[in-house]
Every structure is written in C-alpha cells, then in structure tokens.
DNA sequence: CGCTAACCTAGAACAAGTTTCAGACTTGAT
DNA sequence: ATCAAGTCTGAAACTTGTTCTAGGTTAGCG
C-alpha cells in the first residue's frame, strides 16, 4: 500500500536477458494459475514458486498482486490485438465492426473464464497506486476499439462513446463472470453501447468540453 | 470463501429488536469508517469494535467485508432514492432527466469520495457469493434510473440502455475515484450513455432476445 | 583478479480478512 | 422456574498479501 519508489515514469531501466526471462516466467505462472481458479487462485507464494523466484523478487518485479494481474492483462491484450489485426471485422458500419470485435474477444474469454475473472477483477479493483498500468491497459483497449471502427479521426463524442463502450465491456463482463447476466444479455448490452459510435453529433452549446485528452492533471503523485 | 450456509433465499428470519439495533450499529460503523479512508479503512476488527459487537457476531450478520459494504451501499441507495423522490429531475426528455439524476447523485458522492470508493469497489469486486446482494443493489439502481426516465413501460432496448448506463455509472465512478478521469469526463460519458435512452428502436431480426428478465437462471448454487 | 553496487534467495515477521471454540447470555416453550 | 436452542462474546488460530533482514550471487569496472 505504501507506494514505494517506482520510477515507472515511462521506461524502467532496461532489463538484462535473465531478467526478461524471469519476468516472462512470472507472467506465465500468473496466467497459468489464473486460468485455473481465477483471482483467488493467483497466490503470490505460488506464483513465486511456479516461476522459480523468491517471493521478494516477485515483489520487486510487480509491487502487488494487482500490478501483477494488470500486467498479465496487458500481456494478453497484446496477443489479442495482434490476432485481431490479422482478421479484421467485416461489419457494415463502425458500430457493427466494434460489436463484432468485442463479441469475438468475448468468445475468446469464454474459453478462459477464470483468467478473465482474475484480470478484469484486478483491473477494476485497482486503486491509484496502479494508475499508470491501468491507464496503459485502457489505452490499449481504446486502440483496439478505434482500430475496429476504422475511423481515422474520431470526434470527441465518438471518443466518449468509446469510453462508454469500454466501461460497458468491463462491467458487463464482470456481471457475466459472477453469474448475474446471461451471454445473450452481454451481447445485447455490448450492441447497445456500440450504437453510440454511429450516432450523429449533437450540439448543445453548454456541453462536452471533456474531449479526449482530459486526463486527470495532477492525480495523486 | 467457503460460502457457508446462508439461506438468504428471500427472507432471513425476522430479527428481534436488539438484533435490528445491532445491525444498524454495524452499518453505521461501516459507513463512518468508509467515510474516512475508503475501502481499506473499513477493517472488520474496527467495525466490530466501533459497533460494540464481537468479531464473530459481525461475521454472523455479514459473512464478508464485501457483503458488509454492499449492504452499506444498499442502505445509502435507499436514502438516495427517497431524496430523489422528493425532488424529481426537470429535464425535457428521458435522457436529460436520467443524466440530471445521475449527476446529482454524483455530486452527492463527491462530498463523500471515500465512502463512494468503499462501496463501489466492493460492489464491482464482489464475486458469486454476493450475487444476491449485488443483484438487489442493481435492481434498486435500475429503479432509480427508470423512475428518472418517467417511462411507464420501457422497451427491451431501453432496458438494455439502462443497463449500459449503470455499467457506465459504476465504471466511470471508479475511474474518477482512482484519479484517471476528470469530472468533466465523467459528466460527458454519463451524458453520452444517457443518449441511448432516447434512441429510436432498431429492428435487426437476429438481435435482442435478451430482454429484461434474462437473469441467469441457475447460477452456481 | 578483486571491488562494489545491484540483485537474488530463503525465511521470518507483520497485517487484515476469516474461522473456530469454549463459555456466558437470551429467548421461548413447557 | 427450568430446560433447550440459539445467540453473543472474547480470544486464539489460520490464511494470504506484503514487508523486512541477512547473506549469497551477478555484472560491470578498474
């Protein structure tokens, strides 16, 4: 909780080969344990043992369980993005393409519900100390969705729509994972949210001054 | 973790007066501790002490910290719903009224960000063992939103829109609470999601068979 | 080679959520 | 009033995330 020195500003010091290797083993162990058993099954001692590193070392690489799982998600998202790039969606308009992409991702997660559980629960439970990493995941997700739209130059409304779609994606996934929504409902809600992409711009003069770049300026650092 | 016998099917056995009183003290302590310090500050030992009950008793009333915080949220939502009923929103169309209602709720939460943190993090982190309680919160939230629309007889699309709005509400709140979104962004995203309410129906024959009642039928029990 | 700083390991220790247990107290029915 | 069942208390124990420490290893460098 203490938020130790983590100069992860943009570039951690470059890792040696052995270190890259360790990091990979840790992420692999995390993915594996998450795959059976979900969030609760990812126990730091077990991750350390499975990865063949000491507990202290695990904590040097990932300062908390949440950091570890968010990094695992980043890892998985990279695979996903690469896969999707090879098979772009074929829908007629942007909304259809986004919905198709997300449903494809959803079917992939259905095959690994425990892994999905671990990653998404970590992502949404993360507090300020994980802001940077969560933000990275968010950017990656946004990139995937924007890729799917095929839009070169989205309007601020569309960016807001993308955020709403992301929110819906995470939240509906959680709802499904904890057995409170059917798959049909997940699909319906994702398609509903995706309709926002195609919406014509609306111009109430007082409104949206919160365009894309409105990151929280100071945060807590 | 074990999911002990909790016959909370629909009606716990009616509590005696002393028991109601204890329950109230516990919720009060929880609210108070959450108000200072958020999720992490709600420590079960401290709640028990502040409420003047033994730890074991606390766990008899609320089988986990998550259950406790979700119940706290239910409590707060009741107040909110009552308050809102006294001052209905004044927007022109349903979307405006919903957005106004949610922004009003959001301003209330701004005054107690720690409490909001504790409740919302618990709500979205909850796993299957808390399904019932989370579902109750969800129903209550849906009721608040539907009240705001003023719609007597919402279409399935509108119900899906309401769910998307709820997802957005929770998720954007988390994003704000962990310092990754500005208030302007929260407002923009809520307004964006609310536009779905006013959308004309769309009729792709293959689509939404996941109307309102599609609760997961069996769950994991 | 020999030094030094950074890194790693094993293991203990600590913190907070959760469980357990023996005994005291309440309650309701006889 | 008395008994049985259920509840509450206080305290210890257990689990898992996290931190700390002492000593061994590695990597770069003179």
SSE blueprint:
The structure is a homodimer of 221-residue chains.
Chain A: H1 17-35, H2 38-41, H3 44-51, H4 55-61, H5 65-86, H6 94-110, H7 113-125, H8 131-149, H9 156-177, H10 183-198
Helix pairs in contact in A: 1-3, 1-5, 1-7, 5-7, 5-8, 6-8, 6-10, 7-9, 9-10
Chain B binds a DNA duplex (30 and 30 nucleotides) through residues 1-2, 4, 16, 18-19, 22, 40, 43-45, 53-57, 59-60, 63-65.
Describe the structure.
Two copies of one chain form a homodimer. Chain A has 221 residues and is mostly helical. Chain A has a domain at 65-198: Tetracycline Repressor, domain 2. The first copy, chain A, contains ten helices and no strands. The radius of gyration of chain A is 19 Å and the shape is globular. Chains A and B meet through helix 7, helix 8, helix 9 and helix 10 of A and helix 7, helix 8, helix 9 and helix 10 of B. The structure holds a DNA duplex (30 and 30 nucleotides).
């Amino acid at each position: 909780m203490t938020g130790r020195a983590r100069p992860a500003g943009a570039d951690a010091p470059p890792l040696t080969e052995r270190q890259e290797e360790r990091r990979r083993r840790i992420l692999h162990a995390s993915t594996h344990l998450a795959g059976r058993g979900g969030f609760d099954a990812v126990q730091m001692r077990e991750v350390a043992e499975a990865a063949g590193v000491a507990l202290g070392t695990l904590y040097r690489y990932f300062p908390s369980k949440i950091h570890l799982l968010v990094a695992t998600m980043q890892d998985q998202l990279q695979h996903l993005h690469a896969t999707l790039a090879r098979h772009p969606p074929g829908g007629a308009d942007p909304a259809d393409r986004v919905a198709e992409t997300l449903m494809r991702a959803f079917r992939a997660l259905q095959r690994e519900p425990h892994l999905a559980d671990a990653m998404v629960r970590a992502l949404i439970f993360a507090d300020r100390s994980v802001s940077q990493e969560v933000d990275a995941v968010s950017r990656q997700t946004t990139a995937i969705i924007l890729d799917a739209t095929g839009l070169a130059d989205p309007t601020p409304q569309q960016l807001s729509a993308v955020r709403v779609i992301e929110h819906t994606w995470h939240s509906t996934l959680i709802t499904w994972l904890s057995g409170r929504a059917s798959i049909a409902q997940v699909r319906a809600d994702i398609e509903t949210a995706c309709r926002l992409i195609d919406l014509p711009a609306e111009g109430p003069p007082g409104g949206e001054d919160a365009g894309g770049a409105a990151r929280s300026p100071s945060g807590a650092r």
